[in-house]
Amino acid sequence: MLATPDGTPVTKVENKDGKLKVEAVEKVVDAEVKTRASALDGQLQDAKAKVAAGDKDAAIKLFQAVAEQKCMFPKKAKDAAKELKKLGVGEVARLADGPEFSSPVFEPRKARESS
User: Fold this and answer.
1) How far is CA 66 from CA 38, 51, 54, 111, in A?
2) What's the number of CA atoms in the CB half-sphere (13 Å) around residue 42?
């Protein structure tokens, strides 16, 4: 089962004979990562629009929500942190570089098998 950080179920992969298919799990995880990345992109755009409209408080809340996702989306979190600094928010945690996903270890199973 894949769930949000607060424990709300997102999707479930059914087992067959007590086993999970790796491809099914990879597909579910990949789809969820793309969905979350897209949602964060939308939050960044909304926050920038709110800054342009003069709604600083709402923009700060959106940027902080994006910055909280630093483990999964470090680049987006860094962008949010930069925008927060511009808005004068001094309590932005330092964000380390995220993991490097270009190595063969992190490629989807099909890509590794076809090599």
Assistant:
1) 11, 15, 19, 30
2) 6
Place of tokens 């920038």: 48
Q: Which two tokens stand for residue 40?
A: 């964060």
Provide the whole-model pTM.
0.69
How far, in Å, CA of 28 to CA of 36, rounded?
12
Task: Give the DSSP letter of residue 10.
Answer: E
Q: Which residues make Cβ contacts (< 8 Å) with residue 64, sequence separation at least 6?
A: 80, 84, 89
Rounded to whole angstroms, the Cα distance separating 59 from 71 reads 21
φ, ψ for residue 62 (rounded to 5)?
Answer: -65, -45
Residue 89 has pLDDT above 60, yes or no: yes
Residue 25 contacts by C-beta under 8 Å, 6 or more apart in sequence? 13
Where helices occur in the chain by DSSP H, the ranges are 22-53, 56-67, 74-86, 109-114
Residue 101 phi, psi dihedral angles, 5° rounding: -95, 10
